[in-house]
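BUG-241 | component: ligand-complex export | severity: low

The export step for S-adenosylmethionine jobs runs without errors, but we want the raw record kept on the ticket for reference. Input record follows.
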Amino acid sequence: MSHEVLHRHRAVWEQKPVLRQLYADWYRAMAAWLVSGPTVELGGGTGNLKEHLPEAYCTDVVVLPWLNLVADGQRLPFRSESLANLVLFDCLHHIENVALFFDEAQRTLRVDGRIVIMDPYLSWLSWPVYRWFHPEPVDYRDDPLYPKPPQTGRRPFDANQAVATILFERNQAGFEVRYPGFSIRHMRRMACAAYPLSGGFDHPSLLPQWLLTPMLRLEHQLERWGRFLAFRMLVVIERRV
Ligand SMILES: C[S@@+](CC[C@H](N)C(=O)[O-])C[C@H]1O[C@@H](n2cnc3c(N)ncnc32)[C@H](O)[C@@H]1O
């Protein structure tokens, strides 16, 4: 199932320039926060990051021929303090035990290393869209850092779209207490209607290519109202000690 979805998404990626341009904007925003040194992507899925960051070592929990390695974010196959960056694009909210991932990030990142996360953000505008028009659930009652017993039959695409909003907005203090060795360097609520209008990977685009550049310019200007309008959250976490 996950294989089929990711192979289909890869084919859509090839055929949809509007999607590639949109992601290019987001990948640039993430790349600007990377420090020099070994960079590993978790949940690489369709493998699109490689086009923008060829030096990244791209991994996923699913076996995919275009990625470098199979790796579960909860048990990273890397030596302690060996990595400069961990990049997660739309991956954090799919990880079953998020605390295991942050424990592993703490172990594998060198001091000054970074976790760069792009994940769904629940604003006033995006919440109803994610809640009613997106197949993945939104569960605000979840405590992402509370250990969950492993679920039998859990699939890589099982998710809670509220994870980043809970961790880095609603209960940021909880994250900071649990991980005093990390500091949240940057948090940006961004992206608005362009992605839903693009149809993403599952629907035809309602957004003509010529409209995308002015639309992205407008979205950047609207970021000051991110709490109300944003669909995504960019979070940069640095290992301090
Ligand atoms: C929504 S896809 C995102 C794929 C790609 N980053 C993109 O933006 O197109 C989420 C990915 O996270 C992966 N994933 C789920 N659980 C994971 C885990 N525990 N560790 C690493 N990757 C995981 C899934 O297999 C899937 O490829």
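Assignee comment: Attached the raw record above. Residues 2, 6, 42-46, 48, 60-62, 72-74, 89-91, 94-95, 156 surround S-adenosylmethionine (CB under 6 Å).
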